[in-house]
């Protein structure tokens, strides 16, 4: 049986290691980063200038990290290979590099996640509305990996042109259009060109103030838990390299 003194010594050694342990993780603005050192989980916020992307981070305290450098393509690929892939239509850019998206195959998503709904895909690069992409699920968030190489590329420009012309979903007539593509198109119509003006914190909720393309103002109340983006980091030095990223991020639902 482990004694209390052994546990305390383990905790002290781990906290000394934290400041020397760089880790790889995706980061969105105002998001959180999480990694594990010697079996203990730490959650951090980024200190300093705003950063959004893949990076190598170093803890400065038990609550904050700084960016050491941006991660390279091989490091990002190594991270993403650990996660479950899904295919989506990009629907509408919400903010920065985060897009509203809809599954290309509803049955596949329902089988693996138990539900089908629009999702947010983070850190999207070089993409347009209705592009078909692959994103990886870490148990809390979807992270963009690449465009879908096997996609029917004629669908995206057709849907973009139809949206610009104001074509109704029931007026779309193109071979190869699936029910999922029509759902994504309908979502794009509903989303429109709304712009977020500002958010105000109110206890456990945010009040989001936004305007539509024609200037009409709206206010929506959003639960903080629905907006939180918590990414899991792969520790790079003297800590747990081979843990399940999905399990690590899932801890957020229990803390």
Automatic annotation (TrEMBL):
This is Uncharacterized protein. It comes from Adonisia turfae CCMR0081.
């Amino acid at each position: 049986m482990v004694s209390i003194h052994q546990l305390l010594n383990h905790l002290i050694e781990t906290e000394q290691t934290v400041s020397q342990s760089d880790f790889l993780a995706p980061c969105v603005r105002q998001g959180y980063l999480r990694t594990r050192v010697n079996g203990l989980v730490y959650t951090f916020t980024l200190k300093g200038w705003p950063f959004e992307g893949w990076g190598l981070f170093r803890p400065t305290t038990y609550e904050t990290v700084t960016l050491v450098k941006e991660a390279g393509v091989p490091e990002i690929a190594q991270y993403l290979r650990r996660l479950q892939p899904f295919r989506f239509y990009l629907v509408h850019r919400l903010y920065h590099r985060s897009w509203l998206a809809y599954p290309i195959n509803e049955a596949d998503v329902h089988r693996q996640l138990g539900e089908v709904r629009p999702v947010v895909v983070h850190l999207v690069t070089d993409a347009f509305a209705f592009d078909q992409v692959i994103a990886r699920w870490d148990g809390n968030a979807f992270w963009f990996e690449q465009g879908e190489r096997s996609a029917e590329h004629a669908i995206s420009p057709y849907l973009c042109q139809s949206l610009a012309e104001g074509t109704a979903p029931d007026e779309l007539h193109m071979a190869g259009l699936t029910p999922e593509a029509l759902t994504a198109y309908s979502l794009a119509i509903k989303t429109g060109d709304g712009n977020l003006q500002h958010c105000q914190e109110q206890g456990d909720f945010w009040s989001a103030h936004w305007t539509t393309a024609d200037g009409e103002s709206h206010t929506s109340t959003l639960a903080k838990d629905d907006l939180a983006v918590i990414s899991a980091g792969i520790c790079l030095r003297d800590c747990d390299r081979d843990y399940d990223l999905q399990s690590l991020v899932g801890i957020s639902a229990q803390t």
